[in-house]
Each structure stands twice: as C-alpha cells, then as structure tokens.
Design a protein that fits this description.
This protein is an alpha+beta fold and about 90 residues long. Helix content is about 55%, strand content about 15%.
Length: about 90
C-alpha cells in the first residue's frame, strides 16, 4: 500500500490516472497532455505501474495504459479505514 500512496502523492501521476478514467491511452498520447521531458513521463508511468494503479500492454513500439480500478478501490478503502470511515467530531 505504501507504493500506492507514494504514486498518488505526485500531481502529475494523479492527473494521469484522471486521464485514464475515460479509457486506455497510449503513452505518447498521455505524455502529450504534460509539459515534461519524456524520461520524466516514463518515470511517472513506471511508478504508477509498480504501484499496480495502471496496467501497460505493448502494441508494437507503443504501450497502452489502462487504469486498474481494483488498486484504486483498495487505496480508497485504506484511507476510509485510516480516517474511521467518516467519523466526525
């Protein structure tokens, strides 16, 4: 779970996840939404993949990424448990 929260800590990675909510995208199309160097984008995608938040599938020279909703739901459940599922004081 620590890898998941580390991945979610960066705003660019959260935006990538937001883009993938609408469906799978190839890495070049994802990168086109950001003003960052290609190695930086590759690093962000690697962190998301290692955290299990996205899956990557190679198609020739391109990689298509899609959101892993199961991992996102697990992260939300962990946060809800941490904060008492809405306990208010």
């Amino acid at each position: 779970m620590n890898k998941t929260f580390k991945a979610l800590a960066h705003p660019v990675r959260r935006e990538i996840l937001s883009l993938l909510r609408d469906g799978p995208m190839i890495s070049g199309d994802i990168a086109g939404h950001f003003d960052v160097a290609w190695p930086t984008m590759t690093g962000h995608l690697k962190v998301l993949k290692e955290a299990g938040l996205v899956h990557g599938e190679r198609f020739g020279t391109q990689i298509r990424y899609r959101l892993n909703m199961g991992a996102a739901e697990d992260a939300l459940s962990a946060l809800a448990a941490l904060f008492g599922k809405g306990d208010q004081q």
